[in-house]
Amino acid sequence: MTVMLRSLEIAVPPTILVQEQARDVFAAQPGLTRLGQRLVRTCFDSAAIDTRHTAVEEMHVDFRGPDPLFYDGASGLLLNPTTKDRNDLFATAATALFIESARKAVAACQGVAAADITHVITVSCTGFFNPGPDYKIVRALGLNPSVQRYHLGFMGCYAAFPALRAAKSFCEADPEAVVLVVSVELCSLHVRTSNNPDTIMGSSLFADGAAAAVVTARELPDGAAALELDHFETVLTPVGEDSMAWNIGDHGFEMVLDSYVPKIIDEHIVGALEPLLASAPELQNLPYSDIRHWAIHPGGRSILDKVQSKLALSDEQLIPARETLRNYGNMSSATVMFVLKHILEQPAESERERICSMAFGPGLTVETGLFTKVVSAAALVPGAPTTDRVHAVDVNA
Hints:
Radius of gyration: 20 Å
Strand content: 25-35%
Distance between the termini: 42 Å
Order of helices and strands: EEHHEEEHEHEHEHEEEEHHEHHHEEE
Oligomer: single chain
Number of strands: 16
Helix content: 25-40%
CATH superfamily of the domain at 226-392: Thiolase/Chalcone synthase
CATH class of the domain at 226-392: Alpha Beta
């Protein structure tokens, strides 16, 4: 039985943070030491990010409004709301993105209607509420009330893969299953000013975004492009448990992102790929660069640099990851879905193209996935330009 990701749609909040402007705001905060100021400028300037999106409208440098909670544009001060204040905004803003991206994914899935959805899997590590996003999607899209609902919470940047793996299992158990997978992360809710290098690094990288996919084993309509979900693996590196973490504090969630993380990935990425590639003997002895597409979670520029160098991948193979980082930043679990969408929308030169994908998260956990991009012969357009479409959602509406 072949299980396919049949549609993949993304959405972001409309408020855009320009990296240089955000850098200047963070660097100007009172209480920063001279070292802290230097770290802010170094982290923001070396992040390889141009723009990011945020659900916090008032964080735009030009926004002026009464009773600011996160950022006072008049004084230029970053404020320090409580975890409750941040989570209250998550409940409102994330719901809008969960619903919008889910609706788009169902609408884009040829031959599937909302009434066909049998399972909903939601993913997020940046907030909590109940009834949760799985419930909100069922109500807003008018899905069958008996739809099976699951939520993967607080797993971090790699969580899209456990969600897709679960979707694959559901479809293998029931050939008629249609699974809606939706990931929404509002990382910008948790930014704060600090002299702590981990906090500064997180503030320079993390952003908000949503991705939704429809997964099913039902027959693929003629002319449609899809991703076959071939195989998934999980590997825990022998070191790094304290190098990447996500904790709940009194004033938001607190990121631990040690500068040692890229070195850990460099030392253990080959071993992490071994069990994945063992599932496809035809790929095992090939140079990594012979696998056509690589969907790498862009946890940061230095992580992408280490992966590219260690696996001897070409600049072209890193374009989807680097472009996602440049345009959107690190959106935690949703980010690798943006990278996969970039690859899915690239014009194909053959009817079947392999994709190796990986994401990194707390633990240090490495989640890997093997996909096959499938297109009809009529859709092949050698050398055609790529596309990168996105939809902004007004989460304050």
